[in-house]
Design brief:
The protein has 247 residues and is α/β, with parallel strands linked by helices. Helix content is 34%, strand content 18%. The strands form two sheets. The protein has a seven-stranded mixed β-sheet. A two-stranded antiparallel ribbon has the order 7-8. The mean pLDDT is 93. It is globular and about 60 Å long. It has one domain (4-246): 3-Layer(aba) Sandwich (Rossmann fold), CATH 3.40.50. The chain binds S-adenosylmethionine. S-adenosylmethionine (SAM) binds next to loops. S-adenosylmethionine binds at residues 3, 5, 16, 39-43, 45-46, 57-59, 62, 78-80, 95-97, 100-101.
């Protein structure tokens, strides 16, 4: 059951610490619902601590980094084949994982099968993707990978009675180092550890050219001339969305 995160997941816990503002939005979306299944749970980020939770995660590398971070029971399985009965949970949670599923439609049907009331999914809407200097100026290949792997929001309408899409602006000091997290801290992307915790970099055939352009643009002031206006912003909408599907 080896997969991408067995290779790139090493060090995840260090660079991908749950951000409290995002956690608050996830909790608001879950409401009081219990029990919860967290699919593609990784190291346990954003799992509620105040109710029964079962975490589903295929990668042992990720499971080992949980180190009791939450009290959830962990089941090693894939989203596309959840080992639970119909309606076993009140809600299913899936955070920044759907774009890794080989069959998204099947995974989403599985979530809707095992949850009775609600799905809460943190994802990225390729259609709402705003300009992002990292992708536009340095790693344009990421746009195409995202277009192919990120779920178009219509996919959610097929499984639920109603769907609510909540924009999730990213705070300038976001502690969860996903692709867009360092939009106001450009030099962070030069750190191999930071890049190692972002799967989009792992999927690019070549990062060296983009990296050396970023390094030199930061050194000679080009980055600041082009994007310095961002330095006074406290949050930015980059296309991340919290999708609430009522079943
Ligand atoms: C970016 S991480 C997100 C982890 C966690 N939800 C978080 O917010 O930190 C993506 C996770 O999806 C998991 N994953 C990949 N393919 C999967 C699949 N087919 N079914 C369930 N999880 C999968 C990976 O192993 C990884 O832990």
């Amino acid at each position: 059951m080896s997969q991408l995160y067995d290779e790139i997941g090493v060090g995840y816990e260090l660079y991908r610490r749950p951000d409290p503002r995002i956690a608050a939005e996830v909790m608001r979306a879950l409401g009081e619902l219990a029990p919860v299944v967290n699919v593609g749970a990784g190291t346990g980020s954003y799992e509620p601590e105040d109710r029964p939770v079962v975490a589903v995660e295929p990668s042992l590398t990720m499971i080992r980094q949980r180190r009791g971070r939450t009290a959830a029971a962990v089941v090693r399985a894939y989203a596309t084949n959840l080992p639970f009965g119909d309606d076993a949970f009140a809600a299913a949670l899936a955070v920044l994982t759907m774009h890794h599923w080989p069959d998204r439609a099947r995974g989403l049907s599985e979530l809707a099968r095992v949850a009775r009331e609600r799905l809460v999914i943190l994802t990225y809407d390729p259609a709402a993707a705003a300009a992002f200097w990292l992708v536009d100026d340095y790693f344009p290949g990421i746009r195409e990978t995202d277009r192919l792997s990120m779920p178009p929001l219509e996919e959610f309408r097929r499984v639920g009675r109603s769907v609510e899409i909540r924009p999730l602006p990213i705070p300038h000091d976001c502690s969860d180092g996903f692709l867009g997290a360092h939009w106001r801290r450009p030099s962070r992307y030069l750190d191999p550890g930071v890049r190692g915790a972002i799967s989009a970099f792992g999927k690019l055939p070549d990062v060296d050219a983009g990296l050396s352009r970023l390094r030199s643009d930061l050194a000679d002031g080009t980055w600041e001339r082009r994007h310095g206006h961002l330095l006074s912003r406290t949050e930015l909408d980059l296309g991340y969305r919290l999708v609430v599907v009522n079943l």
